[in-house]
Amino acid sequence: MSEIRAVIFDCYTTxxxxxxxxxxxxxxxxxxxxxxxxxxxxSAEGLRNALDLEKQRYLRAKDERYPEVDxxxxxxxxxxxxxxxxxxxxxxxxxxxxxxxxxxxxxxxDSLPVLSELRKSGYxxxxxxxxxxxxxxxxxxxxxxxxxxxxxxxxxQFGFTKPDPRLFAVANTLLGVTPQQSVYVGNDMEKxxxxxxQAGMRAILLDRDGKESKKATEVEPDFxxxxxxxxxxxxxxxxx
Length: 240
Prior knowledge:
By secondary structure, this protein is an alpha/beta fold. Helices cover 42% and strands 16% of the residues. The chain folds into 2 domains: 6-19 and 105-237, 3-Layer(aba) Sandwich (Rossmann fold), CATH 3.40.50.1000; 20-103. A 6-stranded parallel beta sheet has the order 5-4-1-6-7-8, with helices on both faces. Strands 2-3 form a two-stranded antiparallel ribbon. The longest helix has 17 residues, at 44-60.
């Protein structure tokens, strides 16, 4: 078996402990009030419905098995329909939408220490995440994550999500390693383990609460870890 030279991570719920509720009434209420500053008169319910319809239209236009929604484009189209052509407004609405919908946002306690160990040990590091590029990089900077990674691959950069193996292939190419030389660490059996294995990589399932490993699945990870320290120990034991 090839030496492990690179470790690639999922981001949210693997490194970042996050909880969001994007259906809260106040999210759309505050957004509709914010848009009044730019001359819009759309109601909270009208904005919610317009965004839902535009997301559906956007996805129908995608010729992908696992299509990704680009929230910034969705907002831009909705705003243009309201007569708002400000090129910066869609991005600011996305960030406000994210801020209002977040209920928990912090690193897991083991994230920075394990990343530090991996970096000191000479591994190339990357993120492959189903994430919105309009706020993912900024959130990584807020929490001090981005400094550890050689590249960050986000689904909205390509228009498709995990488990599409092409996302994993992009990260391996950018890191200059073969799939056999890298291992993926993620918390979702379908998206993370299946995608990485289909890309020819080894995969570690991070199962902090013990629920994911109980799900029926067509693939098996190379290792089950209850935290990132266990993942790190397995990586060290499989260096050669």
